[in-house]
Design a protein that fits this description.
Elements lengths: L1 E3 L8 E4 L5 E5 L4 E5 L7 E6 L5 E6 L5 E6 L2 E9 L4 E7 L6 E4 L3 E5 L3 E6 L4 E7 L10 E2 L7 E5 L5 E7 L4 E9 L3 E6 L5 E6 L4 E6 L5 E6 L8 E6 L5 E6 L3 E6 L14 H12 L5 H8 L5 E4 L7 E8 L2 E8 L3 E6 L6 E2 L1 E7 L5 E2 L3 H5 L40 E4 L30
Parallel strand pairs: 5-31, 25-29
Antiparallel strand pairs: 1-2, 2-3, 3-4, 4-5, 6-7, 7-8, 8-9, 9-32, 10-11, 11-12, 12-13, 14-15, 15-16, 16-17, 18-19, 19-20, 20-21, 22-23, 23-24, 24-25, 26-27, 27-28, 28-30
């Protein structure tokens, strides 16, 4: 759910968090975080100008954990507790960081030809996937459901093969031959049971079951021209799938309930003809029958701009379904989505992301009902004297002894507790230390 904008855009990057309740933007001066709890008011949760030229910023759900990468140090990932102003840790890698993905179990760092998987609870390195096909855009997707933590990335640089990896067991799950051409977009649904994909042509979007890899849906975005799909995202209930591109049109597809049970004899003439039409496709060439079975968009949006990078999100705000579109010129557009009839979505609000935002540091906590004390609310005592220690890289299958690449890393002084995210335990191994050396056996 991230996009890197092309110069001279106002935003250098922009991304929604995992459940689309927060928006993060990066600029030449730093980064900002916004809460997406209201249509009329855009609340700025945090602003930092300590790191310039930010081109990756990712927030973990509604916690205080934020990951930042800047053009000044493109090989270094910095992990912060932004409400305490504390650096949790930093890691340096062998080449430029292209993308980062998070859930409550794993943190994934994608380089052009390798992928690093960390345990987010203590930032230990669990696995390095080496010699991946050249992935110049850092395309990858991580299931936000930490119960499975599936990771998807291109399995080929010349075809649309998807490599599916289990981030919990640290084993390859399967490969999916999704498209003829190279991949351009990947997205899991909220449970990690479905995976959507699009190729560089951008004409067809397919949805597969996970982990089996069976094709469930096929949607046609258009045939008139090839486009660059910049955003692909499911709604949290998995009923809708949204795709945006470098054109002015955003498409929303509806994932109708699949069923294998059909009546033996159609009750109506239209039903009978529909069944005959379905049977006829079996005798047609594959390309023709595929065209006939593909669904059109359930709802659309026509943006006032074309050619700008943008990302979309389908979210429920103030109890109603909304489509959010963030553009590289620094605007957030909010549309109403009719979940029954679809059609053209109606623009209801346009926010400027670079204006003088209203600071609402405690807004998110105020909106949430009080919860009992949890493990995450157990605050560790702040260390007054930093200890000098460097934690070695860790791998469940042998680490450096089996070819793992251990990135340089450094821990911040004192433990950090993310006590504002009650479902997320505190990071407990955060110590001051000197960076270690990258290792390769």
């Amino acid at each position: 759910m991230e996009a890197a904008a092309e110069a001279p855009a106002a935003l250098s990057c922009f991304s929604y968090n995992q459940d689309c309740t927060s928006l993060a933007i990066g600029t030449t001066t730093g980064y900002r975080l916004f809460s997406l709890s209201s249509v009329e008011q855009l609340d700025q949760v945090h602003e930092s100008n300590e790191i310039p030229d930010v081109y990756i910023v990712e927030r973990l759900f509604s916690s205080s954990l934020v990951v930042v990468v800047s053009h000044a140090k493109p090989q270094q990932m910095n992990v912060y507790h932004f409400k305490k102003g504390t650096e949790i840790c930093n890691y340096s890698y062998s080449s430029h960081i292209l993308s980062i993905r998070l859930n409550r179990q794993r943190l994934v760092v994608c380089l052009e030809e390798s992928i690093y998987i960390h345990n987010i609870k203590d930032m230990k390195l669990l696995k390095t996937i080496l010699d991946t096909p050249p992935n110049t855009t850092g395309l990858c997707a991580l299931s936000i459901n930490h119960a499975n933590s599936y990771l998807a990335y291109p399995g080929s640089a010349t075809s649309g093969e998807i490599a599916l990896y289990d981030g919990n067991t640290l084993k390859t799950a399967c490969t999916i031959p999704a498209h003829d051409g190279p991949l351009a977009a990947l997205a899991f649904n909220s449970t990690g049971s479905k995976l959507a994909s699009a190729s560089e042509k951008g004409t067809v979007i397919r949805v597969f079951s996970i982990p089996g890899g069976q094709k469930l849906y096929e949607f046609r975005r258009g045939m008139k021209r090839y486009v660059n799909i910049s955003s692909l995202v499911f709604s949290m209930d998995s009923q809708f799938l949204c795709a945006s591109s470098n054109t002015e049109t955003v498409h929303i597809f509806k994932l109708e309930h699949l069923t294998d049970s059909r009546p033996e004899e159609p009750p109506t003439w239209s039903g009978y003809m529909g069944k005959m039409f379905q049977a006829a496709t079996n005798y047609l060439p594959a390309q023709v029958s595929g065209m006939m079975s593909q669904d059109r968009a359930f709802a659309t949006v026509r943006l006032n701009i074309s050619g700008q990078r943008n990302i979309c999100a389908l979210s429920t705000i103030q109890k109603l379904p909304r489509l959010l579109v963030t553009t590289s010129d620094g605007h957030l557009y909010i549309y109403n989505l009719n979940p029954q009839d679809g059609g053209e979505c109606v623009l209801i609000k346009n926010h400027s992301l670079l204006g003088s935002g209203k600071m609402e540091e405690n807004k998110e906590n105020d909106l949430q009902p009080p919860v009992p004390q949890s493990y995450a609310a157990t605050v560790a005592r702040q260390s007054t004297v930093p200890s000098t220690s460097t934690m070695p890289g860790y791998s469940e299958d042998g680490g450096a002894l089996r070819g793992e690449v251990i990135p340089e890393h450094e821990f911040a002084t004192g433990p950090v507790c993310l006590d504002d995210e009650n479902e997320f335990p505190p990071i407990i191994l955060c110590r001051g230390g000197q960076p270690g050396k990258a290792k390769r056996s």
